[in-house]
Amino acid sequence: MDIFPAVDILGGRCVQLVQGKRETASSYGHPLSSALRWIDEGATALHIINLDGAFGSAGANVDVIRELIAKTDVFLQLGGGIRSESDAAGWLELGVDRVIIGTAAAEDPSIISRLSIEHGSERIMAGVDARGGEIAIHGWEKTAGEVSVWAKRFEDEGAGSLLFTNVDVEGLCEGIAVDPIQRVMAAVKCPVVVSGGVSRATDLRILRELGVAGAVLGSALYNGMLSFPAVLEELK
User: Fold this and answer.
1) Beta strands 134-137; 124-131: pairing state
2) How far apart are CA 181 and CA 194, in angstroms?
3) Active site residue: 40, 97, 108, 129, which one?
4) Is 129 marked active-site?
5) pLDDT tens digits, 197-213
6) pTM confidence score
7) Which residue among 8, 63, 73, 87 is the active-site one?
8) What pairs with residue 79 in β-bridges?
């Protein structure tokens, strides 16, 4: 199971939100400093989210993300504000290893197919963000139907992997919700990376038993509930 420390960017700063709400942001300094910290502690992959992009400012934080690409040498997956094929292609050409397509895929699922054909399905991850069992789009501000149905649709369109984020537990540091993850896992055969609520070693063990491909670590890592070296040791 791969582990992805989160580097979420809002207003040029590395932050963590609670349930995707902008007003809950806790700041953790410059994104590159956070990225290098996790790499120094053993990370081989990072999960970068342009929160300003997710909230509608697609051009925000471009220079910060370019710096992350240039000054790190690990696997990078990027999401937030990628609303078109040209947006996705631009980041892939700059050196991002995998892009996460969320709102754009819910509005036009065929974008997944076109991008997968053009760039390879392994570089295209569909974002399946859930709130109350429905897919959440536009910065998690709207919902648009049953999550597992969308997950299967994205896989059928050619997504090489899925990012499942449970907004209901995101940032609360109270543990994962197992049932929604199981429903998504039952609906698809492609790799699923889970985000939201991962806050203790027990969560990691459960995710591994469920067969997920990876886990994103956010608030619990930044507030010290989880130690990244301890996480790596747990998964050995």
Assistant:
1) antiparallel
2) 8
3) 129
4) yes
5) 999 999 999 999 999 99
6) 0.94
7) 8
8) 49, 100
